[in-house]
Amino acid sequence: QVVFEGVNKYFGENHVLKDIDLGVEDGEVVVVIGPSGSGKSTLLRCTNRLEEIQSGDIRLEGESITDDRTDINVLRQRIGMVFQHFNLFPHKTALENITLAPTKVKGVPEREAEQKGRDLLDEVGLAKKADAYPAQLSGGQQQRVAIARALAMEPHVMLFDEVTSALDPELVGEVLGVMRGLADEGMTMMVVTHEMGFAREVADRVVLMADGRIVESGDPEHFFTDPETDRAKQFLSKLL
Ligand code: ATP
Ligand code: MG
To answer: Where are the alpha helices (DSSP H) in 105-211?
Structure first.
């Protein structure tokens, strides 16, 4: 569960997150959409404190990310993040990419991490690619390894930032399929995407951002067929 309360974020003079209030319940899938520069990535990056906020609060399972008593490194282990540009370690195999953090950061025994890593590769449909290096994998396969790597830390929440945007169109489906599977298993997810089909089918809630604000938030079916705000209508009309 993630709660944003009155969150404001500035880059210098640029006010990029404006009074953001948002609650993501356990097991909920919130899809964040909106035009370029509206603050979607910044919202996700603030969640694990890759960016500092200037006011308001973000709480993960009741624990404030800005509290001095919060160990941000421990808290980050509970947040899995996958970006547009899968940054796998090029000199490590798919399996090694996955086992690295659990063994080094969490002290999971090598054997146990490997077994778990193989299970995860199986889950993302890459059981046969354990020993492949990133360069030997397609973009879609690399992105699925990146998701498995994030899952290996057993996060409570997964954040996805345009994970399919850099992929060839025919590879998008396999990655969205993995995300849909995760959603079905009850993972709590915040997903920034331009894939409106995914938003409509998988999201429990769609959040539209524009100019640093949440301008509309609601049930996907309702949002896509009968949006409340002019801003949402305008955004949707540009997609068609
Ligand atoms: P896109 O759809 O293009 O990814 P976005 O909704 O993710 O856009 P953000 O990347 O969150 O938008 O950017 C929001 C605003 O913050 C923009 O005005 C951007 O220029 C600014 N911004 C983002 N990152 C930085 C940074 N590191 N330093 C300064 N300004 C930044
Ligand atoms: Mg972005």
So the answer is: 110-123, 139-151, 169-184, 196-202
Q: With a 6 A CB cut-off, is 143 part of the ligand 1 pocket?
A: no
Residue nearest to atom 17 of ligand 1 (CA): 37
Residue nearest to atom 9 of ligand 1 (CA): 39
* Predicted confidence (pLDDT) per residue in 185-227, tens digit: 999 999 999 999 999 999 999 999 999 999 999 999 999 999 9
93, 139, 159, 178, 207 from 32: Cα distances, Å = 32, 23, 11, 18, 5
Give, as one character, the DSSP assignment of residue 136. G
pTM (predicted TM-score): 0.95
Greatest CA separation for the chain: 55
Within 13 A of 108's CA, how many CA atoms are on the CB side?
19
- Of 5, 25, 33, 21, nearest to 157 (Cα)? 25
14 lines ligand 1 (CB under 6 A): yes
Identify the residue whose tokens are 């524009």. 210
Terminus-to-terminus CA distance in the chain, angstroms?
Answer: 34
How far apart, in whole angstroms, are the C-alpha atoms of residue 171 and residue 155? 25
